[in-house]
Design brief:
alpha+beta; 7 strands
Length: 353
């Protein structure tokens, strides 16, 4: 039976008024004199009947609505599925209950299938998450390996940083000080080289430069021995090289060689005959000159370079005005001997480490 009819039947029809005739004896609605047709109905006029005499279905709120109100829309929450799975899992475990009591009713046929589907979906989602995590970790590891390889290749294949062109500090192996040149050659050697007892003159002696001059002026001997040792520091004013101490000494050695080979004009210095000397420092030379200035003077000059130290030794003798003769070969041999003694002392000096 429809819900509307069932509700009417349960509430019942309105009772008839006592002392009134049946439906055929009186009109359904009391008619007002002077009203006919549709005018007999007036929703705003009272018909004289009490609300207590009306059935419940005729009063507002007397009958509950048959249809339940519509539920509001729910927002999906993944936690609901997890709770539903837990609830269904609890339902699958039978409750033993008390002894003698009947167990829980058996679940319907459809519920286990639904539980299996929900649990299966959860396991599949977890498996997908694990696979995604493994892929993410694998790609991240591969990216790190690629970055490391690229960085290592760049560091290995890149060219080294260019060295600065100019040097302004002392370098390893440089010598900062030289020995006192007046304390190198012994007295017996000096008497042999100068053919007499010399007089000593020392113009200057410093840490980086020392000079000593010996002279014999006793007829028929007039000889002069000059010894100079100088340690050159770094210098950026030189026109060649990188400005280091060794480059400065090398430049000075080349300049002195040029002056001996091609002396300036309008000077009494004649061009020298230059010869190479091996086994004497890093580079060495000997130069022979003959001066004709009021007297004939023979001079032998030896220049040797060791790292940044330059050694210059010259030995001369007068061969005129009652002096002489002067053995030219002997002058060169004695000058080379003095240069070797000075070089041996310089090699004992401390170097920059």
């Amino acid at each position: 039976m429809p819900a509307g009819r069932r509700a009417v039947t349960e509430q019942g029809y309105p009772p008839r008024r006592t002392g009134q005739a049946g439906r055929g004896d009186e009109p359904r609605y009391p008619q007002d004199g002077g009203r006919v047709g549709w005018q007999t109905l007036d929703a705003f006029e009272e018909d004289g009947r009490d609300e207590r005499d009306l059935p419940p279905w005729a009063v507002p709120g007397g009958i509950r609505p048959v249809r339940a109100p519509r539920r509001p829309n729910r927002v999906y929450d993944p936690a609901d599925d997890r709770e539903r799975v837990y609830d269904l899992a609890d339902d699958l475990v039978p409750d033993p209950g008390e002894p003698g009591e009947p167990g829980p009713p058996e679940p319907d046929q459809d519920r286990p299938a639904m539980r299996g589907r929900i649990a299966g979906r959860s396991r599949a989602a977890a498996a997908r998450r694990r696979r995604s995590k493994r892929r993410l970790v694998g790609w991240a590891g591969a990216a790190i390996v690629v970055v490391v390889l690229v960085t290592a290749g760049y560091l290995v294949t890149r060219s080294p940083a260019p060295k600065p062109r100019y040097v302004t500090t002392w370098q390893r192996g440089d010598i900062r000080s030289v020995p006192d040149t007046c304390r190198i050659v012994g007295s017996s050697a000096l008497r042999q080289y100068l053919a007499g007892t010399p007089a000593r003159i020392q113009p200057y002696s410093q840490a980086s430069q020392s000079q000593c001059t010996y002279t014999v002026d006793q007829k028929p001997v007039f000889r002069v021995l000059n010894i100079t040792a100088q340690a050159y520091p770094p210098n950026l004013t030189v026109t060649t090289g990188n400005g280091s101490a060794t480059a400065t000494a090398t430049y000075t050695f080349a300049q002195q060689r040029e002056l001996l080979a091609h002396p300036p004009k309008n000077t009494p210095q004649p061009p020298a005959t230059i010869g190479h000397v091996g086994g004497l420092g890093d580079e060495a030379l000997s130069a022979v000159q003959v001066f004709h200035v009021k007297a004939v003077i023979d001079r032998v000059t030896v220049i040797a370079r060791y790292h940044n130290v330059l050694i210059t030794v010259y030995l001369s003798g007068q061969a005129s005005d009652g002096f002489g003769p002067v053995p030219a070969a002997g002058l060169r041999t004695w000058a080379l001997a003095v240069t070797r003694d000075v070089l041996a002392q310089i090699k004992r000096e401390p170097t920059v480490s």
